[in-house]
Amino acid sequence: MKAEVNIESGRNAAIALLRDWLFRRIDEAARTWFEEQVSLLRSDSGDRALYTAFGLMPRRLGKKSLALSADDAGAAAHCLEGWKPGDWSLVDAGRILLLARLPGSNPDFARRFCALCRTADVAEAISLYRGLPLYPEPAALEPQVGEGLRTNMRSVFEAIAHHNPYPKRYFDTHRWNHMVLKALFIGSGLAPIEGLDERVNDELARILLDFAHERWAADRPVPHELWRCVGGFARGDALEDLARVVCSGTPLERRAAALALSASPDPAAAALLERMPEIAQAIDSGRLTWAELE
Amino acid sequence: MRLGDDDTMKFIDAHAHMISRTTDDYEAMAASGVVAVIEPAFWLGQPRTNVGSYLDYLSTLVGFERFRASQFGIRHYCTVGLNSKEANNEELAEAVMDLIPRFALKEGVVAIGEIGYDEQTPLEDKYFRLQLDLARELDLPVMIHTPHRDKKRGTTRSMDVCIEHGLEPGKVIIDHNNEETVREVLDRGFWAAFSIYPCTKMGNARMVEILRHYGADRIIVDSACDWGISEPLAVAKTAKLALQSGVPEEHVRLACYRNALEAYGQSGQMSEEDWLNPPPIDQRTLYEGNSILRGGRPPVVEARRSARSADDLVIE
Ligand SMILES: [Zn+2]
Q1: Chain B residue with Cα closest to A89
Q2: Pair A86, A68: CB distance under 8 Å
Q3: Confidence class of residue A102 from pLDDT cuts 50, 70 and 90?
Q4: How far is the CA of B16 from the centre of ligand 1 (A)?
Q5: Which residues, 6 or more positions from A62, have their beta carbon under 8 angstroms from its beta carbon?
Q6: Which of A80, A224, A243, B87: disulfide with B127, CB 3.0–4.6 Å?
Q7: Which residues on chain B are in Cβ contact (under 8 Å) with A91?
Q8: Which chain B residues have a beta carbon less than 8 Å from that of A123?
Q9: Which residues, other chains included, contact A204 with Cβ-Cβ below 8 Å and sequence gap of 6+?
Q10: Coiled-coil ranges per the record (chain B) (predicted)?
């Protein structure tokens, strides 16, 4: 219960922060228009006003980036763990703020969120999913977020998967694993996924090893980040796969394999690592971490 | 002029139903110099039976199709509206009319359209008028589909009704013109678009004659390519034929690029900057994975294989 209260107050602080950032970056006319929309939506529970405000946002707020400072980014993380609005636009900020400020304890929020997603243009879909950490009823939004992950538009997928604490907190293992796999599948990075190292699991490691074999069979490269989610579960046959990368990988791939080996619970991993003494030493001394390979 | 190379002409296909076209078509269009397409909402070749399929259709126009075009360095715009054929299903029409305002103000929606008459029934007339009022209220241009049958009268009537509803001719594009309709459309101050569509609408040799005769003021050449036998390279081919036939280059530029930009740019949702120098936010969302366009250079798409052939054996 206490944790929930903290999240609620963190969410409120985040909303206040976002409003402050936005209002410092737009002119008086845009601020007035925005506040009008907020109060209009307070009295009008129909959807037309919401859709209109959403659609008009780029016309009123412009096409600039929110351009946060390092201090701003720090303040964001302080409010909500893992909240990284660093590459949001002014329009993202406006749309998300509008939704986050919909009146009161709103039992209708999930329905309205889904309806907006269903008719969203590309940029709207990105805004809608980026805002997940700030909305009420977060758990009720999960099925729609799952729908969002099925998109073919990489930027929409990344609005959910990257720099967003929502998946870590609300996805079950199945959804989580398929998000990670899809990220690799579409050539998207794993490093920006919040909670990546915390939510690794045996099943994910198995899925990713199968994926690696599929890529090898098709004579396609295996993304080096894959090994990050495998290392902690690499035993037996998995070590043979890592040995293959150690022997024939690119320098980047070999360093990734070495990091995976260093996390392996299998004692045999140490022998493989010894084949790359320089890399092993860099890992031991803390000079080589996954952050170096991003 | 060399098509598809640097410093060649850029084209806008101001009427193209891209959801029916393949990636080969996008690739060929980009290689021919097309930098932007406008996809009007229309019917799908068979009627929709419920409003849900209309909703998904309009969502596709502002979502996935926009993304698909971006993968080839082509900027995708659309128009939204209830078409004349489906206006005859009153139950559907009523429900769709509730949807139109939800989509009309989205980014990249450059007009209400394509609307107008098909058989010129009372229901077509009713929903045409309602949508003209909406366009006026939202200050959006209108794209008019003129009927295939009884075309001349249908075209005149479409313009009469636009005037009756207070629209400025300069904000209305009358499409699918031919030799019989063009004079009146231009004389009354509307934009005259021509769909270069095999067999049923216009051929490009006839189009060249029209350009010779009328010049290029307020004339727009488009392909109207869709699910039928049609030609996604119609704009580039017409431009080439016109130049070969001695039409001044400036006129070709107007008819195949500049006029569409000017007419639909009145929406505030389409500008040359969008493809010459897109803002970083658009680059991120609309040109992802397409490094070609970043940095403001026109798209360079790899030369296409001369023809599709089962003799190209290797698929990678
Ligand atoms: Zn059409």
Answers
A1: B281
A2: yes
A3: confident
A4: 7
A5: A26, A30, A90, A91
A6: B87
A7: 281
A8: 107, 281, 285
A9: A173, A176, A177, A180, A181, A229
A10: none
Report, as an integer, the average pLDDT of A7-24: 93
Rounded CA separation A212/B163 (Å): 65
Query: What's chain A look like in SS3?
Result: CHHHHHHHHHHHHHHHHHHHHHHHHCCHHHHHHHHHHHHHHHHCCCCHHHHHHHHHHHHHHCCCECCCCHHHHHHHHHHCCCCCCCCCEHHHHHHHHHHHCCCCCCCCHHHHHHHHHHCCCHHHHHHHHHCHHHCCCHHHHHHHHHHHHCCCCHHHHHHHHECCCHHHHHCCHHHHHHHHHHHHHCCCCCCCECCCCCCCCHHHHHHHHHHHHHHHHCCCCCCHHHHHHCHHHCCCHHHHHHHHHHHHCCHHHHHHHHHHHHHCCCCCHHHHHCCCHHHHHHHHCCCCCHHHHC
DSSP assignment letter at B225:
B
Residues of chain B whose beta carbon is less than 8 angstroms from a beta carbon of chain A are: 55, 58-59, 62-64, 66-67, 101-108, 268, 279-282, 284-286, 288-289
Domains of chain B: 11-270 (3.20.20.140)
Tokens representing A74?
């720090």
Residue where the block lists tokens 């999930």: A110
How far is it, in rounded angstroms, from Cα A271 to Cα B117?
A: 78
Residues B226-247: pLDDT tens digits?
A: 999 999 999 999 999 999 999 9
Q: What is the pTM of this model?
A: 0.91
Place of tokens 């110099």: B33
Helix (H, G, I), strand (E, B) or coil at B75: strand
What is the ipTM, given to two decimal places?
A: 0.87
Per-residue pLDDT tens for B186-230? 999 999 999 999 887 789 999 999 999 999 999 999 999 999 999
Chain A's closest residue to B77, CA to CA, is A121
